[in-house]
Design a protein that fits this description.
The protein is α/β, with parallel strands linked by helices. The protein has one domain: TIM Barrel, CATH 3.20.20.140. It is about 40% helix and about 15% strand. It is built from 9 helices and 8 strands. The chain has an 8-stranded parallel β-sheet with strand order 1-2-3-4-5-6-7-8. The protein is globular. The chain starts with 6 loop residues before the first strand and ends with a helix. It comes from Sphingomonas agrestis. This is Amidohydrolase family protein.
Length: about 260
């Protein structure tokens, strides 16, 4: 019997009637509603969940907000226009939104990280008690993380910091991530391992545990495994967690860290 984590810090919910962005990399033809996600959590003994904004749906956050209104055991990130007002951010925070996910195509240019518009948005997020969640390529991470270092803004980096990065653990993105963790206010999600080289997962996790520590790591299932639905089950993601983070004390420290970050 696998001792489950207390919280799943990365999953997506959606229905097939939700609008896709024009650039969506895939278009699922099935539903994974909030009820299905909660059923997966319950079936595996997990108390809390975090709904992560999916790039497929862009700034359409309506379904996520409706789920938050019904289920107090959920928190969420959303995607927002950088011109979102402080009043709207405060309203979203009160509804259970903890942060904003930032993802752009790998070849796309970052916004002007020293410019007024980006700095205003990042500062407003910090003022609202939110975090910025990054799913970026290595070069993009290497530019973004230092630009945020002087702001009191918590950062969560998705998918080991490696899913979209070149150079693996010696690449610019991962090395920038390790430096940011040491400075503080940066956390890393051990999520979507099934999208990374299976034989390397233990090495990735071991380095993060050594250099970041379990208190800077969160676990996420990435349910419903979009694009890999036929080869991944929820239980397999838990089995992977136990394999790559074998010490139950480390796994509990990760859960505690995620609970503090998203709920308390």
């Amino acid at each position: 019997m696998i001792e489950p984590p207390v919280i799943d810090a990365h999953a997506h919910i959606f229905t097939r009637v939700m609008p896709f962005t024009d650039t969506a990399w895939t278009r699922p033809d099935y539903d994974y509603p909030d009820e299905a996600y909660l059923a997966d959590l319950d079936a595996h003994g997990i108390a809390f969940g975090v709904v992560t904004a999916a790039s497929l749906f862009g700034e359409y956050n309506d379904y996520t907000l409706a789920a938050l209104a019904q289920h107090k055991r959920l928190r969420a990130t959303v995607m927002l226009d950088p011109d979102t007002s402080p009043a709207e951010l405060a309203s979203l925070k009160a509804q259970g939104v903890c942060g904003v996910r930032f993802q752009i195509p790998l070849k796309a240019d970052l916004p002007d990280l020293t410019g007024y518009r980006f700095r205003r948005f990042a500062t407003r997020l910090a003022d609202a008690g939110m975090h910025l969640e990054l799913n970026l390529g290595g070069e993009q991470l290497a530019a973004m993380l230092p630009a945020l270092a002087d702001l009191p803004l918590p950062i969560a980096v998705d998918h080991f910091g490696l899913l979209r990065s070149e150079g693996e653990m010696e690449g610019p993105g991962f090395l920038a991530l390790l430096r940011a963790v040491q400075v503080g206010r940066t956390w890393v999600k051990i999520s979507a391992g099934f999208r990374l080289p299976e034989a390397r997962l233990e090495a990735y996790a071991a380095r993060l545990l050594t250099e970041a520590g379990p208190g800077r790591l969160f676990w996420g299932s990435d349910a419903p495994f979009v694009g890999a639905e036929e080869r991944v089950t929820y239980m397999q993601t838990l089995e992977t967690l136990v394999r790559i983070v074998p010490d139950a004390r480390d796994r509990r420290a990760m859960s505690d860290a995620a609970l503090r970050f998203y709920f308390f």
